[in-house]
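In response to reviewer comment 3 from the previous cycle, which asked for concrete evidence that the modeling workflow produces usable outputs, we include below a single protein chain processed end to end. The sequence was submitted unchanged, and the resulting structure tokens are shown without manual editing.
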Amino acid sequence: MITDIDRVKVLSEALPYIQKFAGRVMVIKYGGAAMKDPSLSQTVMRDIVLLASMGVRPVVVHGGGPEINIWLEKLGIEPQFLNGLRVTDAATMDVVEMVLVGRVNKKIVELINLEGGSAVGLCGKDGNIIKARSQGREEIGFVGEVSAINTQLLEALINGGHIPVISSVASDETGQAYNINADTVAGEIAAAMGAEKLLLLTDIAGILRDYRDPSTLIRSLSLSEARELMQQGIVSGGMIPKVQCCVRSLAQGVKAAHILDGRVPHSILLEVFTDSGIGTMIY
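The workflow returned the following structure tokens.
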């Protein structure tokens, strides 16, 4: 039984963290189990609103893989992946844009607003936030990469007390739409905004030395150690773009990047407001 004294003590102990992070930008990539489980979704949205109420300036970037797959299957299009990236032909690109920008984005905005926040839904095309370019690989189709980030609109929204919610669809100089990995987008936005933290919600405990054994969780590692794990093949599959975006964001000035288990309730708060944290921190 938690008493009123316990609650007040917890709040008091959080004061140093609140003071440290007030006014700082934190970019949160929302996806995985935290997106699929309604109770976890509500917890994440409440935690994001709590961060904003404490003076943190959250920016949310999201994917929407499971819902994209549902709609592809409804339309008779088989989902395909290569090294953790969705193979995106013209028909798949239409579905990706429709689902991410039209359905998933507005659902997240609604959930944040229901918790008392003020969320604004965007995609990379809005205000030219993200400029895309082709990866130049025919085998993956319209899967792009970030060529530039314009933070002007995001800064205006944050300064106005809003929480930007960004889907990872953007266009190139000709107007061609591209599907960009949401982890990559989160990392580039974090770098462009000089974020204090980049937080990636995933479906595993963090970076594991043995992906079959959660007890091999690596709690923290340096930039060079992260690169070494990729070279050794310990980081593989869908974890590759996550670690790559962490490495890139850190190299561009982000203070710390965290790969968190989104299946754990309040994983964001556990990372931000406790000494021990949760998941893997790359510094």
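The CA atoms of residues 125 and 262 lie 28 Å apart. We consider this sufficient to address the reviewer's concern, and the full set will be provided in the supplementary archive.
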